[in-house]
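ARCHIVE CARD
CATEGORY: sequence design from structure
SOURCE FIELD: tokenized fold
FIELD CONTENT:
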């Protein structure tokens, strides 16, 4: 009598543990799927954002186009901008730079490009690039995204 009672008690305990385990197992895949879906959604919307940024940056580049080519190593009124990231300022041979730019010691990066393009004459006094600068930070950021994409 006593042993049967003990046994059935142990059984209910075991059942409860099993139930709990099944519950966790049942909810686990949903939990995973939810997370995965969310990650995919975030990823896709991020891609959309950056595509939109690059597109609007491309429009900003219309301001530069008359003087700079970005896809061909061909100088216009200004030097070409192929592989501009990591390039030393004033380093395109056969382009006649101002000595201000040539001697600036600047390496073009996201940061230095933003500084120069926001206000060329303030960033490098004596530069001969006649461009007023881009004051709008969104436009400037988008332009940089575009340069990253097309200058390689
Ligand atoms: C009116 C013509 C003109 C316009 C417009 C213009 N630039 Fe320039 N750019 C130049 C000239 C000229 C230089 C050389 C400056 C110097 O020697 O001081 C130059 C230099 C540069 C450099 C340095 C390149 C190097 O080899 O070190 C970068 C980067 C640059 N321009 C980017 C831009 C971007 C981006 C725009 C548009 C937002 C733009 N420029 C608009 C004429 C222009």
């Amino acid at each position: 009598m006593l042993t049967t009672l003990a046994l059935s008690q142990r059984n209910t305990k075991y059942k409860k543990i099993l139930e709990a385990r099944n519950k966790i197992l049942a909810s686990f895949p949903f939990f995973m799927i939810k997370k995965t879906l969310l990650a995919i959604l975030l990823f896709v919307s991020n891609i959309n954002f950056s595509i939109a940024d690059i597109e609007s940056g491309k429009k900003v580049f219309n301001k530069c186009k008359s003087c700079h080519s970005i896809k061909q190593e061909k100088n216009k009124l200004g030097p070409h901008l192929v592989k501009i990231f990591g390039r030393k300022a004033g380093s395109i041979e056969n382009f006649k730079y101002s000595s201000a730019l040539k001697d600036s010691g600047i390496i073009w990066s996201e940061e230095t490009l933003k500084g120069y393009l926001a206000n060329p004459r303030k960033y490098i006094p004596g530069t001969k690039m006649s461009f007023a600068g881009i004051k709008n930070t969104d436009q400037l950021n988008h332009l940089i995204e575009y340069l990253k994409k097309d200058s390689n």
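CARD ANNOTATION: The CA atoms of residues 101 and 127 lie 6 Å apart. The mean pLDDT is 91.
SHELF: design records, drawer C
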